[in-house]
Design a protein that fits this description.
By secondary structure, the protein is an alpha+beta fold. The strands form six sheets. A three-stranded antiparallel sheet has the order 3-4-7, with no helix packed on it. Strands 10-11-12 form a three-stranded antiparallel sheet. A two-stranded antiparallel ribbon has the order 1-2. The protein folds into three domains: about 90 residues, no CATH class; about 120 residues, no CATH class; about 80 residues, no CATH class. Helices cover about 30% and strands about 20% of the residues. It is built from nine helices and 14 strands. Helix 2 runs parallel beside helix 4. The C terminus is likely disordered. The radius of gyration is 28 Å and the shape is elongated. The N and C termini lie far apart (about 85 Å).
């Protein structure tokens, strides 16, 4: 009895049609036989060609049965939910099959595999090389923002729980990135930053990288706490308001008054900005080990770097830059 439909699937007096469009892509869902769908396609092609001057793409235009073959649309797949055992108590206090035959979105398996490969090498999680020059909080925030964007974009998909494998991959790659930067074990980073957190009223385990500030509460960069709960009525904020910054990135780095390679401040040495002609000049070190300042620029994709006068002289002389210098006059006197 659970396999029988609640309504007559071939009722000749009941039809329904839904239309959805995004830019030049559109999809039409109709309830009825395949012959009516083909007639709709034949009638729509001349209208689109004559009125708006559009032409249907032969590679993208197709007619599919939602139950047997999903229809690709805007990177997702449109299908009908086949579950005949899931029930939900309605307003009249009776349990009803709430998901059988309903149109829903799902995430293609190829998309999930592609997202996992970005944090993998030979099938295992690896660190991100471009984040090795960043702070621990920046690395954690970068992983969190990337994962949150993927989950929120597919919040309407009923296969949202499949992101669990992607979460496990990124959760293993993040400690490896931080551990590779500090030249330590992954377990040490995990024990240092592992902390409980709350997400949508449920407890989660994640990573918490604090940034201490003098006289203020520390800033927290979190990883985790994003529930993989399907919500068919969630609102997607795909057009956020632009955020304007008061200063450029180079200006902020210059006002920080810190030498980026060695950490010297303006209290110990004069600070200068070294500028390259183009980013292509960083590739002339192929075949031999690149200097540290070249790796920092290549990772950030920036032509400028803030240096103290000593590092500036060492750079032009071809000597390796020091990694630690005195940070204040008090340390110099000691």
């Amino acid at each position: 009895m659970q396999q029988l439909p609640a309504l007559h699937p071939r009722d000749p007096d009941w039809r329904r049609l839904k239309y959805s469009r995004s830019a030049a892509d559109f999809g039409v869902a109709c309830t009825g036989p395949q012959s009516e769908a083909e007639a709709l396609q034949r009638a729509g092609a001349p209208f689109l060609r004559e009125e708006p001057g559009l032409k249907l793409s032969a590679a993208k235009t197709l007619i599919t049965h939602a139950r047997s073959q999903a229809a690709p649309f805007l990177g997702d797949e449109i299908t009908t939910m086949p579950s005949a055992t899931k029930h939900r108590r309605s307003q009249d206090r009776f349990k009803r099959r709430s998901s059988t035959g309903k149109v829903a979105r799902r995430v293609p398996g190829a998309v999930m595999l592609e997202q996992r490969k970005r944090s993998q090498q030979a099938g295992k999680p690896v660190q991100r090389t471009k984040l090795l020059q960043e702070r621990d909080c920046t690395s954690s925030a970068t992983y969190q923002l990337a994962y949150r964007r993927l989950v929120n974009d597919d919040r309407h998909a009923y296969t949202l729980h499949r992101f669990k494998t992607l979460k496990q991959t990124m959760e293993a790659a993040l400690p490896k990135t931080v551990a590779s930067k500090h030249k330590t074990a992954v377990g040490h980073i995990d024990r240092k930053y592992r902390a409980p957190m709350q997400g949508a009223g449920a407890p989660y385990r994640g990573l918490r990288a604090p940034v201490e500030r003098a006289g203020k509460d520390p800033l927290l960069a979190l990883w985790g706490g994003i529930p993989l709960k399907w919500d068919s009525k969630a609102s997607l904020h795909d057009q956020p308001r632009p955020s304007w910054q008061s200063r450029a990135e180079l200006e902020k780095r210059r006002l920080a008054q810190v030498c980026e390679p060695c950490g010297a401040t303006r209290m110990t040495d004069q600070l200068e900005v070294h500028q390259l002609r183009a980013l292509t000049d960083l590739h002339k070190y192929q075949g031999r080990d690149q200097p540290r300042w070249v790796k920092m620029r290549a990772a950030r994709r920036r032509k400028s770097i803030v240096l103290c006068h000593s590092c500036q002289v060492d750079l032009h002389a071809g000597r390796p830059l020091q990694t630690q210098r005195a940070r204040s006059r008090t340390q110099l006197l000691r």
